[in-house]
Write a structure and sequence with these properties.
The chain is α/β, with parallel strands linked by helices and 257 residues long. It is built from 10 helices and 9 strands. Helix content is 48%, strand content 14%. Helix 5 packs across helix 10.
Length: 257
């Protein structure tokens, strides 16, 4: 049973492609067919590096470690908790009318801050989704769920629909100025925190970073495997990393950070 479980990665599309490419390369090398081998070999090396080794985890750790981890009990109180979007999407079929994803730690962390009275109010941000000509708000859906299902009265507000992190920073800056808020606790994924903090700082928001949702295996309790069968979550992690890298370039180019 353990053996069958261990080879499951090879039965997934990524594993099948990697296995077939590996067999084909071995066959070509064995038969000394060197012509045109550099391109498929390069593809195999890239696939192996980012799906069979901790290379992706190292890249993610470099982002996640830009801000130190925090302990909620040791945080100084602030005026507002801001939970950035990206952890939920409205749903037409879920009983709760919201579907949380793997970044739900953002919401969990913000709720823990609120429960420990680190700020009197929690604001949830998020983007929009369109279906059959109707627009749905991620923040509205998440706040409705939290208010209707937690069973305790909590001061949780929705910022409505935001276009991106830059838009979230501008709206929070305006809200802070309107309400006279001195400092906020900014909650988002550790990989996203460097870009988020830079955007909020430029917008004039005095924010303290509360990173969460650590996904690098170097920042978790799982054992580090330096060579393993292809894993799709390694490629997903690479997608997260490249999204932040390109996002940072774009934000700098636009003058948003």
């Amino acid at each position: 049973m353990h053996f069958l479980k261990s080879i499951i990665p090879l039965l997934q599309p990524l594993g099948l492609v990697w296995t077939m490419l590996t067999i084909w390369l071995i066959r070509q090398i064995w038969r000394r067919h060197w012509h045109g081998l550099w391109l498929p070999t390069s593809i195999w090396l890239v696939m192996t590096l980012f799906s069979c080794t901790p290379a992706t985890a190292l890249l993610l750790r470099a982002l996640e470690d830009k801000f130190p981890p925090v302990t909620i009990s040791e945080l100084q109180p602030a005026d507002m908790i801001v939970c950035l979007g990206g952890s939920a999407e409205p749903s037409l079929k879920e009983p709760t009318r919201v579907n949380f994803n793997s970044s739900v730690d953002r919401v969990n962390t913000a709720l823990a801050l609120l429960a420990q009275k680190k700020a009197p109010v929690m604001v949830v941000t998020g983007g929009s989704y369109k279906k059959n000509g109707q627009t749905f708000s991620e923040a509205d859906a998440a706040v409705a769920f939290l208010k209707n299902n937690l069973g305790v009265p909590l001061n949780i507000l929705s910022l409505g629909i935001c276009a991106d992190t830059h838009d979230e920073a501008l709206k929070i800056a305006a809200l802070s100025k309107e309400k006279g808020l001195q400092r906020i606790l900014l909650v988002t994924s550790a990989t996203h925190m460097p870009r988020a903090m830079a955007a909020f700082k430029l917008a004039g928001v005095n924010a303290s970073a509360v990173p969460c949702d650590y996904i690098s295996s170097f920042n978790s309790v799982v054992d580090i495997s330096w060579l393993h069968l292809p894993k799709t979550n390694s490629l997903q992690g690479f997608a997260t990393w490249i999204h932040e890298i390109i996002g940072t370039w774009v934000y700098r180019w636009r003058g948003w950070i």
